[in-house]
Design brief:
The chain is 10% helix and 35% strand. The strands form two sheets. Strands 2-12-1-11-10-7-8 form a seven-stranded mixed sheet, with no helix packed on it. The chain has one domain: Tumour Suppressor Smad4 (Sandwich), CATH 2.60.200.20. It is globular and about 55 Å long. It is found in: Cytoplasm. Pfam families: FHA. Belongs to the TIFA family.
């Protein structure tokens, strides 16, 4: 047998790709402590914390408007499944966090969709999960966006789009969703 045949099977690693954007990033350099373009390993039993406190957070945002701990990501395996997911938890008492169009208050948490946009303040983060098999760790791969990720990726805007001059928020405020009606009715 050759050494190739005797080698252990290579296991794939779940990777969380995160693309960061802030309108003042060139002036304020709030991302200067993030390692862009380089994959970093995070143990599966640790939370990936984002915020401005470098003693607590591994991913530091250098901005006084960011909470000491803004949010955390927890890697976990679904019960009775081989599927690995991330859970995002808002740890800021001052700032709400939105994941796509779901708003999270302090200590609220949800499963992170496979592709989503995380927003708080003027920050926009496009998160994309690349599936893997490893149970021991996952990787993060950070990227810097030149343009807003909401526009750059052609993902749905968080603002309602008015098509006929009537805002859909009128219907939503009454607890009813807009319904489609055939022209012939």
């Amino acid at each position: 047998m050759t050494s190739f045949e005797e080698a252990e099977t290579e296991e794939t690693v779940t990777c969380l790709h995160m693309t960061f954007y802030h309108p003042c990033q060139e002036k304020k350099m709030m991302f200067r402590c993030l390692n862009f373009g380089k994959r970093e390993q995070v143990r599966a039993d640790e939370m990936a914390k984002f915020g401005r406190d470098s003693n607590i957070c591994h991913y530091n945002l250098m901005d006084t408007r960011v909470s000491r701990i803004q949010f955390a990501l927890q890697f976990y395996r679904k019960l009775n499944s081989s599927e690995y997911l991330f859970e995002i938890k808002n740890l800021s008492k001052r700032t709400k966090l939105t994941v796509n169009q779901t708003e999270l208050g302090y200590l609220n948490k949800i499963d992170l969709p496979w592709k989503c946009i995380i927003c708080f303040g003027d920050y926009q983060i496009l998160a994309e999960v690349q599936e893997g098999e490893s149970m021991d760790y996952f990787e993060t791969h950070l990227h810097l966006a030149e343009a807003p990720v909401l526009q750059e990726r052609s993902l749905p805007s968080l603002q309602p789009i008015v098509e006929n001059g009537i805002s859909s928020s009128i219907f939503l405020s009454e607890g009813k969703s807009p319904t489609e009606i055939d022209e012939n009715e």
